[in-house]
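Consider the following assembly input.
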Amino acid sequence: MIVFEQKPFEEILGYLVHDEKVFILRCKGCAKANQAGGEADVTEMKKKLEGRGIDITGSTIRGLLCVKAKSILSELNKDLVNTSSILVMACGLGVQSLAEVTDKVVHPACNSMPDRESMERGKREHRCGTCGDCVLEFTGGICPLTACSKGLLNGPCGGTSNGKCEVSKEMDCGWMLIYDRMKKLDRLGVLKSFLESKDYRKMQGPRRLIT
Amino acid sequence: MKSGSNLEKVLESGQFAVTAECGPPKGTSARVIQRKGELLKDYCDAMNVTDNQTAIVRMSSLSGCILLIQMGIDPVMQMVVRDRNRIAIQSDILGAVALGIRNVLCLSGDHQRFGNHPTAKGVYDIDSIQLIQTLKTMRDEKRFLCGENISGEVPLFIGAAANPFADPFEFRVIRLAKKVAAGADFIQTQCVFDIGKFGRYMSMVRDKGLHEKVHILAGVTPLKSVGMARYMRDNVSGISVPDEIVARMEDAKDAKEEGMNICLEIIDQIKEIEGVHGIHIMAVAWEDIVPTIVNKAGLLPRPIV
Ligand code: SF4
Ligand code: SF4
């Protein structure tokens, strides 16, 4: 899941200097965090832009822009006739999905980032970096790529101190977690084996996955 | 001989080696390196040139090494995996060898978040142990990591770091063994202040017979001030400075002299530990003291091999 937050207003305004007529499209979002306040966001954006002399031809909030961009666009066709560009309040995926199906200029109004909340311990989604060559067998079921700040496969580095990572005293050293767990399991011997350098092709981003 | 470097010759001849450290400037002046070179030339067997230490941008280690070679000094090129992927690393090694560099120290590198470009993307394509293995493959099999052949020889003396003071203590020797198995020829340790702990570490090293497979150089750092002692105790992760050393610095009339005396005492004790083949002096921002320390420690003249 991707979380998005609105860019600074002045930055958005900068995108629109050459656009006479702008339509605002806001994605309903895929999670609670993004759904809240959609109406108010749009109303405020409209008001602020009009206050700075931008002609807003219309606005709407639609669900799941990333998967429904095409049908959403055909429903909006009439409203878009007189519009030179679309300001999209959505995550990077939503903006790209829309750009794929329209010839109008599409402006992103938001920054997208990983969902930190779900990265917290106990929430699973971001604890796997989908590297394509899982080493959990050798690391006690704790991923060194995501739990170590340097993604070391043969850790811990010399910076670990009192169980914390050299990067921050607030952060557990992933390799200490691995060590402690292996010790508890009486499997420390496994940590003697050397893990080879990774085939990072298997971990490439979307450029490689979408064919 | 694997590389024929001066450091390798000294160690292989069974003599107690001394290495020193040179931090390159945050600028373009060759003089900074040359001055440190002139100062330390006769007082060490090889000089490490740090690689953007603490993730602060400085003149590259490779170029610092070349400046030292031009002065007849045997350099140890430090190389961190933080800033280079396997392509850049191997390419730099080829160039380094072509220019006469023989000793390379393989390191993870301090995390980029510490430095003056905390917004940088860390590379960490391979880790420090994989780097050792890469260099060994390049030297012994004349092959790149990918398996393709290298033209020409790759004479290298492969170094690695060890931190006997970082957690988990019991695992540090296992990790050292991994480095030795991967191909490390020499080790430079984190600076030793807690000699008791270092002694325990070394006895575990001997139990595993590692002292016969690798040359261990114990790191030492002269403390220049009380502030430095406290700072290293409280803020530098992976360094252990016992309270009694800090107290000695606090009580001393002349902190600098006391710092040097502590350093000399530590060197004396290190010399007695079986399996330690030398010292690595990291006199951060106090290079001037190194000749005195080497002299007073009875380590002069440096051998000609
Ligand atoms: S090793 Fe790779 S596949 Fe396994 S948990 Fe870590 S990132 Fe995911
Ligand atoms: S301190 Fe631990 S988590 Fe942090 S970089 Fe080193 S090994 Fe990784």
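The domain at 6-296 of chain B is CATH 3.20.20.220 (TIM Barrel). Ask yourself how this observation constrains the way the partners meet.
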